[in-house]
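Hi all, posting the design record for the shared folder.

TITLE: backbone redesign
STEP: 1 of 1
STRUCTURE INPUT:
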């Protein structure tokens, strides 16, 4: 069956994504101020709930372009809900949970109204999305403690499990170019948060030689992450999705662009929080939390990227998996010097890119 006519990302989607930039900034700030397992758990819970609906809007725009006035206004209503969520993120577990949940309720409702215009079967998963919003509102009432965290966990699990219990039905028409471009822009936005983190970390510090070197090393780390994701992989992924049949294309999109991109984006967010602390500390030792955030965030990104490349069929991934393991060995370096750990991580990513480039080159036959 021929694939649907190609579509590209609209300016309204880019406008919508500006709110996602703000949400990512808020999540990074939350983690930078609480680099404990509790802080990480809260960031992951909030991110996965957000990611579920962000992915929903990406699939929505892939199916039905927001080009008419009614569609645009409805999407802007969803954007307003998203902004409420982003505003409430720093206090989601300390007084802002109700606002977070109400914003999410608006986000879910606008998505359902738009999607039902093309695929009414989507309404079968609406109850789970609404229930997730109500769980978050209820968590806001408890405010903090075990009940709030349990309710947030339900908000994560229920929407993801529901489609497998009661499938939405109907056929999803995946336009490869749009999916690849939208998620590429998302990753670019997230990497941009690393750049913001560098500026925040530098703050009002005196521009010493040590600080400038640390800033440049951190910028090189962000550039290495960018290079590793965008080095011709977008074009290859688009070709791979286009060549797949409808069922395989849908599966690859779900597992490659929804699930595998969770560790990609979370990894970059955690890395950005570590970068912020590394720049602030410069050549001084990092605490255990920031040192782990810097290394583990980079490793998590690499593992997610390896899974994405394997699922979509644009590998190889083994070099990235090995590099992720080596990243963890840089944590003791951070305990000695923040800049040294950032430099080691940058070097590891650079070596991995060189190794992959050499592996791609066809070997000449022996004469």
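Okay, here is what came back for every position:
SEQUENCE:
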């Amino acid at each position: 069956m021929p694939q649907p006519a190609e579509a590209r990302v609209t300016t309204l989607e880019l406008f919508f994504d500006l709110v996602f930039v703000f949400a990512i900034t808020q999540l990074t700030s939350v983690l930078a101020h609480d680099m404990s397992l509790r802080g990480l758990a809260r960031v992951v819970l909030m991110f996965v709930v957000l990611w579920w609906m962000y992915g929903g809007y990406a699939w929505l725009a892939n199916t039905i372009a927001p080009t008419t006035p009614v569609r645009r206004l409805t999407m802007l209503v969803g954007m307003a809900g998203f902004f409420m969520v982003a505003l409430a993120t720093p206090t989601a577990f300390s007084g802002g949970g109700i606002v977070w949940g109400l914003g999410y309720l608006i986000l879910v409702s606008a998505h359902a109204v738009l999607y039902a215009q093309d695929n009414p079967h989507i309404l079968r998963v609406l109850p789970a999305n609404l229930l997730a919003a109500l769980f978050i509102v209820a968590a806001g009432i408890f405010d903090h403690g075990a009940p709030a965290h349990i309710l947030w966990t339900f908000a994560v699990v229920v929407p993801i499990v529901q489609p497998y219990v009661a499938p939405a039905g109907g056929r999803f028409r995946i336009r490869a170019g749009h999916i690849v471009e939208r998620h590429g822009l998302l990753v670019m936005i997230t990497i941009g948060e690393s750049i913001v983190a560098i500026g925040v970390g530098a703050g009002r510090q005196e521009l010493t030689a040590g600080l400038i070197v640390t800033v440049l090393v951190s910028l090189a780390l962000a550039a290495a992450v960018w290079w590793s994701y965008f080095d011709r992989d977008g074009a290859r992924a688009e070709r791979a999705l286009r060549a797949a049949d409808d069922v395989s294309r849908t599966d690859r999109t779900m597992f490659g662009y929804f699930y595998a991109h969770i560790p990609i984006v979370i990894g970059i967010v955690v890395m950005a929080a570590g970068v912020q602390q590394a720049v602030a500390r410069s050549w001084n030792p990092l605490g255990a939390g920031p040192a782990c955030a810097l290394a583990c965030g980079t490793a998590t990104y690499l593992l997610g990227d390896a899974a994405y490349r394997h699922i979509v069929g644009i590998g190889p991934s083994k070099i990235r998996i090995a590099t992720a393991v080596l990243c963890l060995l840089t944590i003791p370096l951070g305990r000695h010097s923040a800049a040294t750990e950032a430099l080691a991580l940058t070097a590891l990513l650079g070596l991995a890119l060189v190794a992959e480039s050499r592996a791609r080159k066809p070997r000449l036959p022996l004469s």
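COMMENT: The radius of gyration is 21 Å.
Let me know if anyone wants the other runs.
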